[in-house]
């Protein structure tokens, strides 16, 4: 489990071993201090909450309520949103610990590189870029139809913004979508503080629309009676299975809080603010989703809901036709906020990959005045604008979930690796490295990563400084052998969990297989999964976890059960994507 510090990427040896090499927690920050400009530290908790809520609450909630209620959950939709919120919180716990320990740009790509290796990080990085690019383009093309309603109805936009069919290309171009993407790109180039301020305003207006739906709908419901809850089929018309199927569907309404982690390097106090921002944003989204579903389902019986415009049609049935414009305004605001949340992380992931030598250094440049990666932002913005202009990416929207679920799964695996088999050489935060360097004139204290062997040389107690540093001290050769065995068993246990989850979820969803074969394969996968989980519960966690990265931040609870459950849920959803 060697741990290698990466250089500037100019001298790299490619091969199988390169796929497993990992980088230091603070390697990105050290490189920016050695040369180049750093990202501006401007973000506080409130701004992180605005990014998280704005990136999560898209226009989907204005449609999802009707679709899931009609086809899966019925009145039990509120429980579906609650279960999905709890499932999303599992990933949020994992993100919160890694974001506070490793506060650099790159989100799941950065964590995978530190804990797993370069090969997996490369895959996760491009999966996230694909997710945000396609997601942003799909969102941009969804704005123009909603915006057209304010100009008199569908296809009523001004001629220079209206969609046009080009026969010789057989495509429908959308100038409005491209213009909106370019506007957002320009705003993000101005600075993180300014762009976050605009996103906070848009998100606040969207939340006000949702509060209007809750308050006005609640008033109508109490005045006219909650007819949606008096249906003969009861609270669970599709049974518990239908409610759980609804949870799997609405889970994707919570995707977006990972955008907060991508801004970790721009947070003033990442150890405190990042976990608080992620948790607060997810809690607000869950509360709003549940309250909107409670009200809308109560106004109209689930089987009579309009699957396309459930909220507007629910108010129209009670004589409030004007509410359509308020709801449509909320949908446009939600789409604009989600568009900003989709473009914001892309340049930061590209910047992180360029710092590690996986992309040209062009992408790692940070503008001296605005202190944002302007070049990367322009490249990603223009790419998304071209895609939104020429292509109808709605059929590719499912790929957005692929990147997110892969990232969620890898972050949970990274938590297990961090707790049980962290790198032998402990990466030191820059502040602690400075302390070591300041003492180097008094006695020989190794600079850079401190290995197990270095720490063992200090065990005699003759070196009085060793006890002052949060390092792992192995007392005897017998302890070393025991530690190697523990790490080996822990690594195999993590592998058993991952392989068992893959076999279990794949076979459970392989409906084309004979039933007896599915049961056999499921039993094998379940056995591997339970054996791995039992071993992880029995094996002690590595003491190195206490000094890995930056201390004093959030600690994920219930390890190994919480990250293992997170891996299981995300893998099942990933296997069952359309």
TrEMBL record:
Its main location: membrane. It holds the Pfam family AA_permease_C. It is found in: Membrane. InterPro entries: AA/rel_permease1, CAT_C. The chain crosses the membrane at residues 45-65, 77-96, 108-129, 165-190, 197-222, 234-255, 276-302, 322-344, 372-390, 396-418, 489-510, 516-539, 551-575. One of its GO terms (molecular function) is amino acid transmembrane transporter activity. Residues 448-467 are annotated as: Disordered. Keywords: Membrane, Transmembrane, Transmembrane helix, Transport. GO terms for cellular component: membrane. Residues 554-578 form the Cationic amino acid transporter C-terminal domain. It is a multi-pass membrane protein. Belongs to the amino acid-polyamine-organocation (APC) superfamily. Cationic amino acid transporter (CAT) (TC 2.A.3.3) family. This is Cationic amino acid transporter 2, vacuolar.
């Amino acid at each position: 489990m060697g741990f290698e510090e990466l250089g500037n990427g100019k001298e790299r040896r490619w091969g199988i071993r390169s796929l497993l090499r990992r980088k230091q927690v603070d390697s990105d920050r050290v490189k920016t201090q050695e040369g180049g400009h750093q990202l501006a530290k401007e973000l506080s908790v409130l701004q992180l909450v605005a990014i998280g809520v704005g990136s999560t609450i898209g226009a989907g909630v204005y449609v999802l309520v009707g679709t899931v209620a009609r086809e899966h959950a019925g009145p039990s939709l509120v429980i579906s949103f609650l279960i999905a919120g709890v499932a999303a919180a599992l990933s949020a716990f994992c993100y919160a610990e890694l974001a506070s320990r490793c506060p650099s740009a790159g989100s799941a790509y950065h964590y995978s590189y530190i804990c797993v290796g370069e090969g997996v990080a490369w895959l996760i990085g491009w999966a996230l870029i694909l997710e945000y690019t396609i997601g942003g383009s799909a969102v941009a093309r969804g704005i123009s139809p909603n915006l057209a309603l304010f100009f008199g109805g569908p296809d009523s936009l001004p001629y220079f913004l209206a969609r046009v069919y080009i026969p010789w290309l057989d495509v429908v171009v959308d100038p409005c979508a491209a213009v909106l993407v370019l506007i957002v790109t320009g705003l993000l180039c101005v600075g993180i503080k300014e762009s976050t301020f605009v996103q906070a305003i848009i998100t606040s207006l969207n939340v006000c629309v949702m509060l209007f739906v809750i308050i006005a709908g609640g008033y109508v419901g109490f005045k006219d009676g909650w007819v949606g809850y008096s249906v003969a089929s009861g609270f669970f018309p599709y049974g518990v299975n239908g409610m759980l199927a609804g949870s799997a569907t609405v889970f994707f309404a919570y995707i977006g809080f990972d955008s907060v982690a991508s801004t970790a390097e721009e947070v003033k106090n990442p150890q405190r603010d990042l976990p608080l921002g992620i948790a607060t944003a997810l809690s607000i989204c869950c509360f709003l989703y549940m309250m909107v579903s409670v009200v809308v389902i109560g106004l109209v019986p689930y089987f009579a809901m309009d699957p396309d415009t459930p909220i507007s049609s629910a108010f129209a049935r009670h004589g409030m036709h004007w509410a359509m414009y308020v709801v449509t305004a909320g949908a446009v605001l939600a789409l604009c906020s989600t568009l900003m949340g989709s473009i914001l992380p892309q340049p930061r992931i590209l910047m992180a990959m360029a710092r590690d030598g996986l992309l040209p250094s062009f992408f790692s440049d940070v503008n001296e005045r605005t202190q944002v990666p302007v070049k990367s932002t322009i490249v990603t913005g223009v790419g998304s604008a071209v895609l939104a202009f020429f292509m109808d990416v709605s059929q590719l929207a499912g790929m957005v979930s692929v990147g997110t679920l892969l990232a969620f799964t890898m972050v949970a695996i990274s938590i297990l690796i961090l707790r049980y088999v962290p790198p032998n050489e402990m990466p030191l935060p820059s502040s602690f490295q400075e302390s070591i360097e300041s003492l180097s004139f008094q006695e020989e204290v190794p600079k850079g990563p401190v290995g197990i062997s270095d720490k063992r040389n200090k065990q005699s107690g003759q070196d009085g400084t060793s006890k002052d540093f949060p390092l792992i001290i192995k007392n005897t050769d017998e302890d070393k052998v025991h530690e190697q065995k523990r790490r080996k068993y822990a690594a195999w246990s993590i592998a058993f969990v991952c392989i068992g989850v893959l076999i279990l979820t794949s076979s459970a969803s392989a409906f084309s297989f004979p039933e007896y074969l599915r049961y056999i394969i499921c039993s094998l996968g379940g056995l591997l999964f339970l054996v791995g989980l039992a071993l992880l519960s029995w094996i002690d966690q590595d003491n190195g976890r206490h000094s890995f990265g930056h201390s004093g931040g959030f600690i994920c609870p219930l390890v190994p059960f919480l990250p293992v459950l997170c891996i299981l849920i995300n893998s099942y959803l990933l296997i069952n994507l359309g």
